[in-house]
């Protein structure tokens, strides 16, 4: 699977995907880059295209309209990559779990494309930036 | 001008078009009109009486689809809502977008979610539901029951 | 092109390559037409609210949008309070004002940071977001959460603020005033910003009215309405503040409106925290009778409008939610057509669209061939390059 190769990467480049979120998680993800949290010191950087990413940060409930786009983005991301599922909406739908425009879980959508995809989950509504940073670092350390 | 004076002014200006005028709370006035009178009444309230268009609400009720057109009179601290009822199974009404461009999106949304046809709408395309959402299924209708994808 | 130098630290960069929200058709460098498709963020919240009890709905609607998180529940509970006819205690009104104005401050600073990024002033972005943090800390102090405050309920508020918290809020306002004044001055006085932003994305007063625009988008075009002044709720008629209006309608005018509004909000929070009366924080009511009402508040982006109908049961029969971006975003038709693509991303950002609407913002298509030629990331880069060129011209 290439874990070792991936694990050697000290500076994971991250691409952010919103699949139908209220923006709380998205803002907190971006907050990580600002001086208070400054995840760039851990080498984490946001990139503008999935083709350059080592990891995806996914928020949102995975609406019906977004699901094919999410899958396409996953396909375009070079493997191996880690998918960080941020926020309870992306995990189980949260308060929107029975919303009619929701397709289903983000990890299920990606597993349709790649049954062996790697996921790391950070629950919360929204998760605090510290929780996200710790989640990301823990996942990187494990791999 | 006080709110009650606004109710009186509406009565005078709309005349017989206003079937009923209610003011159930300090800053809410509801005016019932017939569907065919909606474009003219909307023009009168928005342009003639110089209010601000807020939004349109559609409600699935036993008698049909109720449409509420909300206008705000900022200087009189009051929201005036024009109410009308269009019959199912094929609810339709004249679009107010030619008069009020701001209504374009919401009429498309009400069409998507409740199945109301807005005649002479400049761009009656799907706005808010996914490309693969089935035609003829209107999520805001009461008979529609969403399923939880987690189950 | 190295993506490392782009480091799109603005939230508009996470653009999915295929999903278009806006399609901008261009001839040469000029936008000639636009198409729009919103659906990616549609979550069906209105339907959801019909299956939640009246008390549960505030928790659902505060997740309509993260940056207007205090405004949506407040508009909803005001609509329900109009149906019930319950008078809200004075202390609760002040508490609502404090939270909502704190939200406005952090939201406007967020926008300022973004605008800075699009122009290419990344220092502005970092400073604005850095000074947002203490506001979020204050919100966490008084409500328990940086975002999603869960502070309002029908009849009042759910939690009180004690003397220490109110003192911390006042101190926080004193501390943030300096940085906000500095950022405001940076916007108002910078000659390059004047050239960059003035005359860009002009929304005329007539268009603002025809598109029913709200908030700073409308106030930047000379339409002086503000729900806090014209249909006062919470404690807005008890504190001293000014409605900020500009006539020019361009991006600069909207930026000025937001900067000055932030200063007004700081004033309001301080006054509210100082003058808040003692007393209960919620009112009792027996039940929610049959009825209907509209409630509206001035969210950072403009008027948030809710309509609620009750049929006497425990669940709303209908709950209509209209966020301000719903009326502001369509005005792009009036402001983008005729613009150069170097200015489009600023014009799109100027109405401060909620991210959840504009996450997958825009794609540029050649009008003749219908081929996609640029994505939003390119638009941001073009905008930043234009600023750099202006800076060179200024210095040269």
**Roughly what percent helix of chain B?**
10-25%
Query: How is the biggest beta sheet of chain B arranged?
Result: 5 strands, mixed
Q: Approximately how much helix is present in the residues of chain C? A: 40-55%
Report mean pLDDT of chain B, rounded to a whole number. 92
Q: Architecture of the domain at 3-88 in chain B, according to CATH?
A: 2-Layer Sandwich
Strand order in the sheet with the most strands of chain C: 2-1-8-9
Structural class of chain B: alpha/beta
Query: Helices and strands of chain C, in N-to-C order?
Result: HEEHHHHHEEHHHHHHEEEHHHHEEH
Number of strands of chain B: 7
CATH homologous superfamily classification of the largest domain in chain C: Cytochrome-c3 Hydrogenase, chain B
Distance between termini of chain B? 56 Å
Shape of chain C: globular
Residue windows where pLDDT falls under 50 for at least 5 positions of chain C: 1-20, 357-361
Q: For the report, how would you describe the main beta sheet of chain C?
A: 4 strands, mixed
Account of the 3D structure:
The complex is a heterotrimer of chains A (143), B (151) and C (396). Chain A is α/β, with parallel strands linked by helices and 143 residues long. Chain A has 6 helices and 5 strands. Chain A has a 5-stranded parallel β-sheet. The longest helix of chain A is centred in the C-terminal third of the chain and has 14 residues, at 129-142. Chain A is globular, with a radius of gyration of 14 Å. Chain B is α/β, with parallel strands linked by helices and 151 residues long. Chain B has a domain at 3-88: NADH:ubiquinone oxidoreductase Nqo5 subunit (Beta Polymerase, domain 2). Chain B contains 3 helices and 7 strands. Chain B starts with a helix and ends in a 32-residue tail after the last strand. The model of chain B has no long low-confidence stretch (mean pLDDT 92). In chain C, 50% of the residues lie in helices and 13% in strands. Chain C folds into 2 domains: 3-40 and 339-395, no CATH class; 45-326, Cytochrome-c3 Hydrogenase, chain B (Orthogonal Bundle), CATH 1.10.645.10. Chains in contact: A-B, A-C, B-C.
């Amino acid at each position: 699977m290439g874990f070792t190769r991936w694990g050697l990467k000290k500076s994971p480049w991250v691409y952010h995907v919103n699949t139908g979120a209220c923006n709380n998680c998205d803002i907190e993800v971006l907050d990580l880059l600002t001086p208070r949290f400054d995840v760039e010191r851990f080498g984490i950087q946001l990139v503008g295209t999935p083709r350059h990413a080592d990891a995806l940060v996914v928020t949102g409930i995975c609406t019906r309209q977004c699901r094919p786009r999410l899958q396409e983005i996953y396909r375009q991301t070079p493997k191996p990559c880690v998918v960080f599922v941020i926020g309870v909406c992306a995990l189980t739908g949260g308060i929107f779990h029975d919303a009619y425009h929701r397709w289903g879980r983000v990890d299920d959508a990606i597993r349709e494309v790649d049954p062996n995809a790697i996921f790391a989950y950070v629950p919360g509504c929204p998760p605090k930036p510290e929780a996200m940073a710790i989640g990301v670092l823990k996942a990187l350390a494990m791999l | 001008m006080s709110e009650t004076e606004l109710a009186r002014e509406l009565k005078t200006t709309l005349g017989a078009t206003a079937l009923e005028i209610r003011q159930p709370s300090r800053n809410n006035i509801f005016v019932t009109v017939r569907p065919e009178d909606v474009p003219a009444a909307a023009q009168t309230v928005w342009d003639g009486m110089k209010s601000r268009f807020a939004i349109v609400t559609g409600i699935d009720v036993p008698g049909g689809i109720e449409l509420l057109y909300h206008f705000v009179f900022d200087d009189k601290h009051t929201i005036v809502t024009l109410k009308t009822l269009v019959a199912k199974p094929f609810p339709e009404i004249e679009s107010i977008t030619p008069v009020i461009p701001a209504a374009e999106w919401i009429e498309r949304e009400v069409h998507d979610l409740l199945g109301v046809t807005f005649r002479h709408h400049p761009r009656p395309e799907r706005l808010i539901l996914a490309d693969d959402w089935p035609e003829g299924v209107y999520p805001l209708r009461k008979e529609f029951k969403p399923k939880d994808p987690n189950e | 092109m190295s993506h490392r130098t782009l480091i799109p630290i603005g939230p508009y960069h996470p653009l999915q390559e295929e999903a278009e929200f806006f399609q901008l058709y261009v001839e040469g460098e000029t936008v000639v037409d636009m198409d729009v498709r919103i659906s990616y963020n549609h979550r069906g919240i209105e339907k959801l609210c019909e299956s939640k009890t009246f008390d549960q709905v505030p928790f659902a609607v505060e997740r309509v949008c993260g940056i207007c998180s205090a405004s949506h529940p407040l508009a909803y509970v005001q609509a329900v309070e109009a149906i019930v006819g319950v008078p809200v205690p004075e202390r609760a009104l002040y508490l609502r004002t404090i939270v909502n104005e704190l939200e406005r401050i952090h939201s406007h600073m967020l926008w300022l940071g973004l605008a800075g990024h699009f122009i290419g002033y990344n220092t502005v972005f970092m400073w604005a977001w850095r000074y947002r943090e203490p506001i979020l800390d204050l919100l966490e102090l008084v409500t328990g959460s940086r975002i999603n405050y869960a502070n309002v309920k029908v009849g009042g508020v759910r939690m009180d603020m004690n003397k220490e918290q109110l003192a911390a809020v006042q101190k926080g306002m004193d501390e943030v005033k300096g940085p906000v004044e500095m950022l405001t001055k940076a916007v108002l006085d910078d000659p390059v910003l004047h050239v960059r932003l003035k005359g860009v994305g002009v929304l005329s007063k007539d268009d603002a009215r025809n598109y029913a625009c709200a908030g700073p988008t409308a106030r930047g075009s000379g339409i002086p309405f503000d729900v806090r002044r014209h249909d006062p709720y919470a404690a807005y008629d008890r504190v001293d503040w000014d409605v900020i209006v500009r006539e020019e309608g361009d991006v600069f005018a909207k930026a000025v409106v937001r900067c000055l509004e932030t200063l007004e909000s700081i004033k309001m929070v301080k006054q509210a925290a100082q003058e808040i009366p003692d007393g209960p924080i919620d009112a009792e009511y027996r039940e929610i009778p049959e009825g209907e009402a509209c409630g509206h508040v001035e969210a950072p982006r403009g008027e948030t409008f809710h309509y609620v109908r009750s049929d006497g049961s425990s669940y709303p029969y209908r709950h209509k939610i209209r966020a301000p971006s719903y009326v502001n975003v369509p005005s792009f038709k009036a402001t983008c057509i005729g613009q150069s693509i170097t200015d489009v991303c600023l014009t799109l950002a100027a109405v401060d669209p909620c991210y959840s609407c504009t996450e997958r913002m825009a794609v540029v298509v050649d009008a003749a061939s219908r081929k996609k030629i640029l994505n939003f990331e390119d638009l941001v880069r073009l905008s930043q390059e234009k600023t750099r060129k202006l800076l060179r011209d200024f210095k040269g």
